[in-house]
Design brief:
The complex is a heterodimer.
Chain A (H helix, E strand, L loop, with lengths): L12 H20 L5 H29 L3 E2 L8 E2 L1 H27 L6 H18 L3 H19 L6 H32 L4 H7 L5 H18 L7 H8 L2 H27 L2 H4 L2 H21 L4 H22 L2 H27 L16 H4 L1 H15 L5 H15 L3 H27 L13 H19 L11 H12 L1
Helix pairs in contact in A: 1-2, 1-4, 2-3, 2-4, 3-4, 3-10, 3-14, 3-19, 3-20, 4-5, 4-10, 5-6, 5-10, 6-7, 6-8, 6-9, 7-10, 8-10, 9-10, 9-13, 10-13, 10-14, 12-13, 12-18, 13-14, 13-17, 13-18, 14-16, 14-17, 14-19, 14-20, 16-18, 17-18, 17-19
Chain B lengths: L5 H25 L7 H25 L8 E9 L4 E7 L1 H20 L8 H20 L3 H10 L1 H11 L4 H34 L34 H15 L8 H8 L2 H26 L1 H27 L4 H20 L4 H32 L15 H15 L5 H16 L1 H26 L16 H19 L2 H4 L3 H19 L30
Helix pairs in contact in B: 1-2, 1-4, 2-3, 2-4, 3-4, 3-10, 3-13, 3-17, 4-5, 4-6, 5-7, 6-7, 7-8, 7-9, 8-10, 9-10, 9-12, 10-11, 10-12, 10-13, 11-12, 11-16, 11-19, 12-13, 12-15, 12-16, 13-14, 13-15, 13-17, 14-16, 15-16, 15-17
Classes of the chains: A mainly alpha, B mainly alpha.
């Protein structure tokens, strides 16, 4: 008789729900494609997707509030639901819900209204949740692949557009390359320690072993590809520009968040003290410095808004890497908070672009925004708010995130990097301000922008705007609000140490 | 509304009122009723700013000139884990600047009645938001809160210049924004270092400048910031002072960080220029006296010669450049740089005459230069040109205008009986006590000011009416006369009876100077940098490179 393994299936629930949802969408599409119109089917799939994602969000939130710690199989821990993963799953789930809401009208506008879109989003989300809940190298890789492959397809979703095809192919090639490098690094670590789970690696890692150093370096490079750190960022502008705007919005927000969180878990849990022996902080210091410099400088010369936002996300990755270079609990807390704010800021900026998509194509050049303050004052004001938040100007959440991050860096003595961050932030202000300049201070072109906004877009815009302002004014006030994101971030990070 | 919350009400009334009117407008639009007309918006904005002024008079009368420390203090926890609280209060310096701001805002709104014709609602909303931002910066006693208001001010000003400005407005607006932000970002790093030093010394995170009600933790001003050679380079007073000073020097503007000013002033609409000159420039000087001097007193004294040199250059160079300007507005802009050179000179003399003169001159400059910009705007509205060569003999068709212009020009030069004289005299007196040659050189600035002002006056106002277009000019209307008379009131009042204003400065300025002196005594005393008895007050002469003196108490 084979003894039943003592597994806790509850650990899988938040991860499995989006996967189940994708199956539901695929089945619905298969059965109903003859009977329902494409638009109907797509809306229904969106509904199913949002339903399953919300369930996953609620389950994860419940786990976070109770502080639950569930390991899938205590004998060989591969997945663990603890406050860190619950927080991460809620963040990713929330971002995905907003992305789905955003997509409904956009897909119709661009005539790519296929239900598979939602199945792919759900699968990718499931992979992301797996990646952040993973405490084993193999599971991390599994999550990475499950996340990446649907997104490769999503990047090429606009299959009649050459740029979209180019974007998908580029992402596939470079992403596979990155996954291979990551896997080889993992293999080397396995070679040194004989373990793939984080606890085992922590116990068995000899950081002076050159093989281990190479392995760690390769793993860092693999993650650096995913978060678009320089010089592994070359794919980002092309992929972001070519993919449909909602896919770009989804990718830029969730993939970066997932990769950073998984990296954080790996560095803190699996490496622990070995990280300082291997001088990973120095590596991150260098990565952060050049990422900030290149990301911000390149953003200045862009003429396409999507490309500009791509470089902006590269720059933000640079700021986040400062947290990794500092490597104290405060720094990681600040990184988590920054990621939350980053999700809302970037998603908001892309939502405005999505809301302006008109006549079957995107609104992604600066000239198309000219005079928007006259024709769509609300959208112009919202875009200005998001640009101000991305630039890190008070009283938005973007400022507080930078304040907390730079504060943690200064406290640990990383003042040089902070000064560099501050100077490159100044450069970024220039290109963030270009959009308000064009919207408010230039006369409108000949084409009139889209006049209506769908409900989904309105909900996403409102959510992001309210979140940005709220996180800027009351990021953590115990008397004034029950939403204390900073405290939650701190609890999550404490789990890792 | 109890007196205890008066300060918060005064600060936030403009923005809250603006949001309320905006909300009302949107609701009316949603209900498909007719929206508020532009006229209604203008009157409501005027009423809001006038009400704010009336309430600030309550602050003025309720202010006790004999008490040391901040009054009308309000403190509420905001982010207690990080030492950030909502903490407001005023002392003599901020009181003067606050009342000057609330006094000028209704006049600014009145002046733009005919000037701004498109996007009026947005413009007025930005003006109200700007007023709250400026007032907030003046009353903030928590460093985080101060920084937030400092940055928030930039956004409405940027839009006001960029949307309603002149031909090169976008260039000017972006230059203004980036220049100011570069300083502020360096200040942010220094702020974080001070934050961390405080944490190191007292074990708690606190960004309150002084101890407020409801907090027992030692405040930021109590932090002992090491002097050079005693700590890591970035933790020393010198570098931290430089970082803060850069942020403020851009705003003052101190030579050579002044190059954004001529562009921003010339391209901004009239009302924008007035606000920029009268209030935003004072932010820099206010920042020095509120933050840089108390936090880094030793470094401030160390840098006094540098500041003297730069202010002197500002005074003389800017005056010479002003003389060759062809555009009246640019001439006034450069005269601002010159005047604020005086302010900085007085402040770094570190005696009571110098610093009080400096603060008074801040207020004077607000009124005089604000009035000058208003006048230039009035003639621009009529002729759509500001070039001096297009005018000549304006006194004939517009005698009231010429008379007012003459009085304001005299005030800017520093004629006795008008406000400019009192400020400049005190500053030069204070500077003469510590650095006589600097004062002598500075007084040449007064001569140069007279030169360029009187020359401009002659070319524009007097002589024959050469240009036929100037013959039919209409003199000032009732609204314009009201605005100018209102601005002339404080110009004469400060000139004839300055003690009314100086009285309220005594306690605050003495306190700032005391702090600077005790810190310097501690640092240069034999044995170097040890924690001294904080109750020691420095009186009489001290062994310092720059001799400090306290004048007789008034």
């Amino acid at each position: 008789m084979i003894p039943a393994p003592a597994i806790h299936a509850a650990a899988l629930v938040p991860l499995a729900l989006p996967a189940l949802g994708s199956l539901a969408v695929l089945l619905a599409e298969a059965y109903l494609s003859k009977r329902a119109s494409e638009a109907r089917l797509s809306s229904m799939s969106a509904g199913i997707a949002i339903f399953f994602l919300s369930l996953s969000f609620i389950v994860a939130a419940q786990h976070f509030v109770t502080g639950a710690q569930i390991v899938f199989d205590p004998a060989s821990p591969m997945i663990r639901i603890d406050p860190f993963s619950s927080f991460a799953i809620c963040l990713i789930g929330g971002a995905s819900i907003l992305a789905c809401l955003l997509s409904i009208a956009y897909l119709m506008e661009l005539h790519i209204n296929h239900a598979e879109y939602y199945a792919l989003i759900l699968l990718a989300t499931s992979g992301m949740m797996l990646m952040v809940a993973a405490v084993d190298l193999i599971t991390v890789f599994l999550g990475l692949e499950l996340m990446s492959i649907p997104i490769y397809v999503l990047a090429g979703f606009e299959r009649r557009d050459l740029r979209s095809n180019e974007s998908a192919l580029k992402y596939l090639l470079i992403g596979s390359f990155a996954s291979a490098i990551l896997l080889y690094g993992m293999a080397l670590i396995y070679g040194v320690t004989g373990q793939t789970d984080f606890a085992g690696i922590r116990a068995g890692l000899d950081a002076t072993n050159p093989l281990a150093l190479v392995g760690l370096g390769l793993i860092t490079i693999g993650f650096a590809f995913k978060v678009s750190a320089v010089p592994f960022h070359q794919w980002t502008p092309d992929v972001y520009e070519g993919a449909p705007t909602v896919v770009t919005a989804y990718m830029s927000v969730t993939v970066k968040t997932t990769a950073f969180l998984a990296l954080m878990r790996f560095v803190v849990e699996a490496l622990g003290p070995a990280a300082s022996t291997a001088n990973l902080s120095g590596l991150f210091w260098g990565l952060a410095a050049i990422t900030m410099i290149v990301g911000n400088l390149m953003g200045v010369i862009q003429v396409n808004v999507k490309r500009m936002l791509a470089y902006s996300s590269i720059a933000h990755a640079g700021y986040l890497l400062i947290g990794f270079a500092t490597a104290t609990p405060e720094a990681y807390t600040a990184v988590l908070f920054y990621l939350v704010v980053y999700v809302f800021m970037t998603l908001g900026a892309f939502s405005v672009m999505v809301a302006l998509a008109h006549r079957g194509k995107d609104c992604d050049r600066f000239e198309e925004f000219a005079g928007l303050a006259r024709s769509r004052p609300g959208l112009a004001a919202l875009m200005t708010l998001f640009m101000i938040a991305l630039a890190g100007i008070p009283p938005t959440g973007g400022f507080y995130a930078k304040f907390a991050l730079f504060g943690a860096a200064v406290k640990a003595g990383n003042v040089g990097l902070t000064i560099l961050a501050v100077l490159t932030s100044l450069v970024s202000v220039y290109y963030y301000l270009r959009l308000p300049v064009v919207m408010y201070m230039r006369e409108a072109g000949t084409e009139a922008p889209r006049a209506d906004t769908s409900l989904g877009e309105l909900v996403v815009l409102a959510t992001c705007a309210v979140a940005i302002v709220f996180l800027g004014l009351l990021p953590n006030s115990p008397e004034l609000s029950a939403i204390r994101v900073f405290d939650w971030a701190r609890t999550s990070v404490a789990m890792l140490f | 509304m109890t007196a205890s919350h008066l300060l918060s009400v005064v600060t936030f009334l403009p923005l809250a009122g603006g949001l309320a009117v905006l909300l009302l407008d949107e609701v009316l639009g949603l209900l498909s009723l007719s929206r508020l007309s532009e006229g209604v918006w203008r009157w409501m904005t005027l009423a809001l700013t006038a009400l704010t002024f009336a309430l600030s008079l309550g602050l003025w009368t309720g202010f006790d000139a004999t008490r040391i420390g901040f009054q009308f203090v309000e403190r509420a926890p905001w982010l207690p884990d990080y030492g950030v609280s909502y903490f407001v209060g005023i002392d003599g310096v901020s009181l003067l600047l606050l009342v000057m701001t609330t006094f000028l805002m209704p006049l600014v709104i009145l002046s733009s009645w005919k000037d701004i014709q498109r996007g009026v609602r947005t413009y007025l909303f930005f003006m109200l938001a700007l007023e709250t931002g400026m007032l907030g910066a003046f009353v903030s006693l928590n460093l985080f809160q101060f920084y937030v208001f400092w940055e928030v001010m930039l956004i409405p000003m940027y839009f006001i210049i960029g949307i309603w400005g002149g031909p090169r407005r976008i260039y000017a607006a972006v230059k203004f924004f980036l220049y100011t932000m570069s300083g502020s970002l360096l200040m942010l790093v220094a702020l974080l270092v001070v934050y961390y030093l405080h944490f190191q010394q007292f074990g708690a995170l606190n960004l309150d400048l002084v101890q407020g009600p409801g907090s027992a933790a030692p405040a930021l001003f109590d932090t002992v910031i090491p002097v050079a050679g005693q700590a890591v380079w970035w933790k020393t007073q010198t570098w931290l002072f430089v970082a803060f000073a850069l942020a403020f020097a851009v705003k003052v503007p101190l030579f050579p960080f002044h190059t954004w000013l001529p562009d921003a002033h010339v391209e901004a609409p009239t009302a924008g220029s007035v606000v920029l000159a009268s209030v935003l420039l004072k932010m820099g000087t206010y920042g020095f006296i509120r933050l840089a001097l108390p936090l880094f007193p030793f470094a401030a004294v160390e840098f006094a010669p540098v500041i003297f040199a730069l202010s002197l250059m500002g005074i003389l160079y800017a005056a010479l450049v002003a003389m060759v300007q062809a555009d009246m507005k640019k001439l006034v802009a450069y005269s601002s740089v010159a005047h604020l050179g005086f302010v900085m000179m007085g402040m770094f003399a570190f005696n009571i005459e110098g610093v009080e003169g400096s603060v008074l001159q801040m207020v004077n400059h607000g009124f005089s230069t604000g009035a000058l910009f208003l006048l230039v705007g009035m003639i621009y509205e009529r002729r759509h040109t500001r070039l001096i060569k297009d005018f000549g003999g304006i006194a004939k068709p517009m005698p009231v205008y010429a008379a007012l212009f003459g009085v304001v020009a005299m005030s800017s030069i520093g004629l006795p009986m008008l406000n400019g004289f009192v400020g400049e005299f005190l500053i030069l007196l204070g500077t003469y006590h510590v650095a006589p040659w600097v004062a002598v050189a500075g007084s040449f600035g007064v001569v140069l000011a007279a030169a360029y002002m009187l020359w401009m006056l002659r070319r524009v106002m007097f002589g024959p009416v050469d240009n036929p277009e100037n013959r039919g000019l209409i003199d000032l209307g009732l609204r314009e006369k009201f605005v100018m008379v209102a601005v002339l009131l404080p110009i004469f009042w400060v000139g004839i009876y300055p003690d009314f204003f100086l009285r309220r400065l005594d306690a605050s300025v003495t306190e700032v100077l005391r702090r600077v002196e005790t810190a310097n005594a501690r640092t240069t005393a034999p044995g170097g940098h040890e924690a001294a008895d904080p109750n020691v007050t420095a009186a009489g002469h001290l062994a310092l490179p720059v001799a400090l003196e306290l004048g007789p108490a008034r």
